[in-house]
Design goal:
By secondary structure, this protein is α+β, with helices and mostly antiparallel strands. Helices cover 54% and strands 24% of the residues. Strand 8 and strand 9 form a beta hairpin. Helix 4 runs antiparallel to helix 5. The model has no long low-confidence stretch (mean pLDDT 83).
Length: 202
């Protein structure tokens, strides 16, 4: 089984490199023909980046590596995610609001948490009508990172989304402090009326 997973990981690595090559070709066409293909480049870059993070998560779980947990300024992390997502969402007619209520730092694996939030916002963007909110606050000695949308909410989870969430749950649980582990929660009836993705880190 591990051998098969290693082969699949190698295929993901090759696909990621091909996507980066495609993005370079598109950027060259933009410059040559003076056209704007931002949405296409965004989709390719997002897919390639997601594959990179998937490989990193695979290596983490497959080989028992340690998380790169360091203190990160929560407001900076939220702003970084917002900048990565806002342009694409605006083009789709969706507004992204950031409500960060904590400006302190928090021990976490910044790359993994950033990836989880980016993925959560991208998923929310598929179902939101016109609004998504990313919020951050401390509750019960845990950092809560929440992504809410104004869509119809969860009914059933598509297999691909389910697989991604299983990985996210495992990565969240790897964050631990004094025998407390991170967790991931999904629910309906968010403050915006749709789905709610909630990541809690000790």
């Amino acid at each position: 089984m591990h051998r098969l997973l290693d082969i699949l990981a190698s295929g993901i690595h090759d696909t990621k490199n091909q996507l980066f090559s495609a993005e370079s070709l598109i950027a060259g066409s933009e410059a040559k023909h003076q056209i704007d293909l931002f949405e296409i480049r965004y989709a390719i870059e997002a897919a390639a980046d997601r594959l990179s993070r998937t490989l990193a998560a695979y290596q983490l779980m497959r080989h028992g590596a340690q998380l790169a947990v360091v203190p990160a300024i929560v407001s900076d992390l939220c702003e970084e995610v917002g900048l990565a997502q806002k342009h694409h969402l605006v083009n789709a007619g969706i507004s992204l609001t950031i409500d960060c209520q904590t400006f302190d730092d928090w021990p976490l694996d910044r790359d993994l948490v950033t990836d989880m939030l980016n993925n959560a916002i991208q998923n929310a963007g598929r179902f939101a009508r016109c609004a998504i909110r990313l919020s951050a606050f401390v509750q019960d000695e845990e950092l809560v990172l929440r992504v809410e949308d104004d869509g119809a909410g969860f009914s059933t989870l598509p297999p691909a989304m389910g697989t991604g969430l299983i990985v996210a749950e495992k990565l969240a649980a790897l964050h631990s402090r004094q025998e407390h582990h991170g967790s991931l929660h999904l629910s309906n009836g968010s403050a915006l009326g749709g789905a709610c993705f909630e990541l809690r880190l000790p």
